[in-house]
Amino acid sequence: MRPVIVQEFLSLDGVMQAPGDASEFPRGGWQKQFIGDDQLRLMVAQMTSADALLLGRKTYQAFALVWPTLTGLQGLADRMNEMPKFVASRTLRKVEWNATLLQGDPSESLADLTSQPGEGLVVVGSRDLVRYLQRHDLVDEYRLWIHPVIVGAGSHLFDAGLDPSSWILGEVTTTTEGVVVLTYRRKGH
Fold it and tell me: Which one of 57, 79, 91, 171 counts the least CB within 10 Å of its CB?
């Protein structure tokens, strides 16, 4: 069974909104100052250990505008471009960039995708999709990249009202750029 892995860049105060995009909101782009060789190496390793990306519409559209034109980045650009992508959207009718559009209720599509053997479906960004996955208890693992910056405003990864759940710490990695990556897996899975 393929796990659903939520991989998010977070600030110290828990903001996940627009880590690399200053145009989304006034405090966006806060993650860029921490990107370096060590962080890129770890991102490549994590993406290489997964089968596919699972993206919401907004993140897919933003990524599809930028990633296909990128090269290098220690192999991250190649990996992002070659990975199969599954896009959850109620409004898109067509996708490109090695992507498949998930039709209908995402939980039904995900049941089919996760029943297949594989290393994992990685969700990056995709705030609305992550919240859907959380509400439907469909997240198997969190990879939380905690950046040493306080943003002060913006959307957070966890909303109030989620059902309680327990997680086990898998790995802790620190990059030379000062980012701590915490991997948590659902207890009992």
Answer: 91
